């Protein structure tokens, strides 16, 4: 237990704060633009400055802070501290030795973790996953990420890459996925998948208010706008969320049948659609899960919001120091 | 550690032996016909007699045996010791208080466990899963069962029903499943699914030797016979195993991407087809898994054979006594 810096490296913003690992309380929370077009070196330099500013703002001595945890939106080698693939950052950061660079600049114990695994740990410790020993967590956004806490422990698996629910194959002959596969959940139920369904509906001239709400500018079509249309009674928009929710439901059904967790936590930007997305997930689980007592499983929205990633990264810094 | 009775309640046979939980060695191994048509009461009575005979044959005093573990082929409430659904036994044993009846008759500490979870524990402890901390196990037979050891612990999940890989949805619009769902792995890759594909090929008059090998008796078509045809160069028979292996591969791919285990162990009667089944599984994993370092994952045949279930049930009796 103690004070850790949590950092959340995102596609558009980098957030950082001092996190009290006993309470989850944040102080000196700051956020800057990532500007990933400037390249990894520039971004890392700005991340170092951000962390220094957070420490200064916290009023604590650097030595009073036990370590730094950085959540990264993609694949990494946790042992080596090297980032392998960040799909939403310019250049994808192939092979960036992020850990080494942060340690060299700040001389503080540092750990890296996938951002959704970090979110999972945070939601389990302080959020919607509290009080049960096994949860699955999904983050539905630009991609679909995931994580598991199993018997009270964040499950990392071989190379620390466990939890990638977004790359569960839910439709063997489905669309090509950026990962190289086909029919991954992410191709059918992520923010971009929902937007693409909205664009298709408008382009094909279906009876929907999506185009009108977007001011007839296709660039303005987004999951949030489609959700707005659906809430206003637009059947086409509702069908889009039903379809995304169906595929999320199939993936959740498979997680339930495999691991039989007590609770499934669903977060990420797209999940702000609330019941519009959660209801078709719950319906699909009711219709498709028979082996597991699905009526005992809670499918609930995440609770910690956008700071879950940095809280979890800070918690992970505490956990991995303890080992 | 000590001597436990392991029992494997199967659809056609009940096996039992004394198992040395430190070495996995069996003594006084016996097997009788289940004759499930006689009803649960008669079967339980014969199971009690079998256990008494095994104890007598072992030459050990009853008090030298620490407990009994019974592997059951279906769903059960482990806590209550009640069997809920055994699809391959006559009458399905809905609500049979098996634990209570065994304890009443034998007055020995007794535990129940699903047979494939038992096999998973046995293969991890003494078989193909030795030496790694996380494995997934599949048993491909009349049904498709599964189990996980995660971080050195058998994962049971809510109500002890985790591990049902056979009810992963691998084709959302696929065939109806006995569980009530649709497109479950079991409908596309179990022994009966393979047999059904063979029957369809013969009935539709495809160019295949399956009918000839079966002596033109459809009752003789079986996964083993189709495997024999495939090994003899029969393209239709090979395509049947390719299809079953493809769907097993999709399920294995999803397990890999979710849990990133170090090793996947594949057993059960149908897996006796060896590479005929394992190769399409490995190929599908190579073609569909990109997030997890799939080249580091071993997909291997089970090693303990038909006694894995009773060995695992005995081990589980030891584990649960320890708690």
Question: What percentage of residues of chain A falls in helices of 4 or more residues?
Answer: 25-40%
**CATH class wording of the largest domain in chain A:** Alpha Beta
Low-confidence blocks of residues of chain A: none
Identify the CATH homologous superfamily of the largest domain in chain A. ATPase, nucleotide binding domain
Q: Which descriptor suits the 3D outline of chain A?
A: globular
Mean pLDDT of chain A: 95
**Category from helices, strands and their pairing of chain A:** alpha/beta
- Provide the succession of SSEs of chain A: EEEHEEEHEHEEEHHHHHEHEH
Number of helices of chain A: 10
Query: What is the name of the CATH architecture of the largest domain in chain A?
Result: 2-Layer Sandwich
User: Biggest interface pair, residues each?
Assistant: A-B, 49 and 49 residues
How many β-strand stretches of chain A? Answer: 12
Question: Whole-number radius of gyration of chain A?
Answer: 20 Å
CATH topology of the largest domain in chain A: Nucleotidyltransferase, domain 5
In whole angstroms, the N-to-C terminal distance of chain A is 13 Å
Largest sheet of chain A: 5 strands, mixed
What percent of residues of chain A are in strands?
15-25%
Q: What does this molecule look like?
A:
- The structure is a homodimer of 323-residue chains.
- In chain A, the strands form three sheets. Chain A has a five-stranded mixed β-sheet with strand order 3-2-1-4-7. A five-stranded mixed β-sheet of chain A has the order 10-9-8-11-12, with helices on both faces.
- The first copy, chain A, has ten helices and twelve strands.
- Chain A folds into two domains: 135 residues, 2-Layer Sandwich (Nucleotidyltransferase, domain 5), CATH 3.30.420.40; 173 residues, 2-Layer Sandwich (Nucleotidyltransferase, domain 5), CATH 3.30.420.40.
- Chain A is an alpha/beta fold.
- Helix content of chain A is 38%, strand content 21%.
- The mean pLDDT of chain A is 95.
- In chain A, helix 5 runs antiparallel to helix 8 and helix 7 crosses helix 8.
- The first copy, chain A, is globular, with a radius of gyration of 20 Å.
- At the A-B interface, strand 9 and helix 8 of A face strand 9 and helix 8 of B.
């Amino acid at each position: 237990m103690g004070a850790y810096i949590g950092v959340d490296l995102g596609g558009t913003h980098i957030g950082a704060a001092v996190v009290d690992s006993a309470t989850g309380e944040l102080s000196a929370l700051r956020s800057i633009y990532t500007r990933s077009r400037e390249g990894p070196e520039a971004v890392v330099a700005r991340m170092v400055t951000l962390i220094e500013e957070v420490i200064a703002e916290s009023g604590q001595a650097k030595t009073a802070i036990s370590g730094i945890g950085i959540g990264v939106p993609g694949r990494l080698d946790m042992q080596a501290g090297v980032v392998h693939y960040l799909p939403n950052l310019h250049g994808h950061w192939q092979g960036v030795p992020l850990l080494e660079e942060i340690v060299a600049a700040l001389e503080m114990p540092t750990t890296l973790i996938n951002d959704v695994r970090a979110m999972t740990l945070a939601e389990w410790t302080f959020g919607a996953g509290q009080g049960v020993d096994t949860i699955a967590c999904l983050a539905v956004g630009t991609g679909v990420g995931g994580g598991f806490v199993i018997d009270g422990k964040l499950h990392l698996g071989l190379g620390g890459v466990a939890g990638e629910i977004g790359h569960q194959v839910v439709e063997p002959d489905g669309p090509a996925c950026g990962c190289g596969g086909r029919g991954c959940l992410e191709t059918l139920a992520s923010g971009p998948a929902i937007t693409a369904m909205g664009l298709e509906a408008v382009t094909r001239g279906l009876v929907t208010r999506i185009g009108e709400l977007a001011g007839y500018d296709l660039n303005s079509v987004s999951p949030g706008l489609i959700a707005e249309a659906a809430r206003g009674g637009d059947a086409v928009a509702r069908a889009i969320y039903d379809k995304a929710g169906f595929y999320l439901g199939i993936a959740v059904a498979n997680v339930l049948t495999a691991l039989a967790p007590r609770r499934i936590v669903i977060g990420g930007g797209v999940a702000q659609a609330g019941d519009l997305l959660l209801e078709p997930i719950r319906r699909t689980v009711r219709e498709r899960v028979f082996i597991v007592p699905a009526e005992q499983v809670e499918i609930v929205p995440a609770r910690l919001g956008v700071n879950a990633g940095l809280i979890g990264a800070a918690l992970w810094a505490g956990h991995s120091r303890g080992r």
